[in-house]
Specification:
By secondary structure, the protein is α+β, with helices and mostly antiparallel strands. The longest helix has 17 residues. It has a single domain, classed as RelE-like (YaeB-like fold), CATH 3.30.2310.20. Helix 1 runs antiparallel to helix 2. The protein has a 5-stranded mixed sheet, sandwiched between helices. It has 4 helices and 5 strands; from the N terminus they run E-H-H-H-E-E-E-E-H.
């Protein structure tokens, strides 16, 4: 199983890193490391997560973020990495164009 992170998810990661770096220096790097670790776990656990808005949703273990992905053959496509503190209609809109 391989993982492909789409540009939209990479932009989400960069935005989250910037947010946490503004809170305290170094936390943004920790954020990225944790989220990449969560994404790497999809090699073993892809497909077992609950579906929300038509995507599988993996909740991050350390940050209030969700990784939205779909599976195509032997590839996990990571579409978005979104802050769970957002308003649900805003989350739905972020995922609607994918």
């Amino acid at each position: 199983m391989s993982i492909r992170i789409l540009e939209s998810a990479i932009a989400d990661l960069a935005g989250g890193k910037d947010f946490y770096d503004h809170q305290e220096i170094g936390v943004g790097d920790y954020f990225q490391d944790c989220l990449f670790s969560d994404i790497d776990s999809l090699v073993l656990y892809a497909g077992i997560h609950r579906q929300v808005f038509g995507f599988h949703r993996l909740l991050s273990k350390r940050f209030p973020y969700a990784i939205y992905y779909r599976m195509q053959d032997d590839v996990v496509l990571v579409f978005r990495i979104l802050d769970c503190r957002r308003d649900p209609p805003q989350l739905r809109t972020s995922l609607a164009n994918k």
